[in-house]
Write a structure and sequence with these properties.
By secondary structure, the protein is an alpha+beta fold. 33% of the residues lie in helices and 25% in strands. The radius of gyration is 17 Å and the shape is globular.
Amino acid sequence: MTLKTRYPLQQAQGVASEILRRLEPACERITIAGSIRRQKPVVGDIELLCIPRFIDGIDQLDREIGLLVFQHVLGFRRNKLGSRVYGPKNKLMVHVPSGIGVDIFSTDEVCWPVALVVRTGGEKTNKRIATAALRKGYHFHAYGSGFSTPQVDIVCHSEREVFEAVDLSYLEPWERD
């Protein structure tokens, strides 16, 4: 088992802010998520959640990422089989100068609240939400807009609604684990 490199929060925040600034014009909406948003003292990677901007059917986020790859700011990460992990929703990159992994996740406006909860994490919080949903007979749609119930779909319009839909108290990002 290899140990994952960890980075001080301040360093990761600086890199995340730089990348966000470069990608922002290509997005309708973009924010820093993950352990940086949870204000963990050390982090393993950077997670950005965004809604890409499309012009004439062209994904401007993909275009801008391509430019950052050309400029050696970002590089493609490879999976265990050596393939790029880069698709329409999940783009796993690396910040070349620092070596910090950069995960860029795309969503849309309807799914934004759920995606922000899931991409902020942490793992225990996400499992608590999914488990609470199952106890109520719901299905949590981590890549969707909320929950399916036997009667109706619940669309969450805020992070708070994601928690409250399954009778959990809302937790601020820095309270999540």
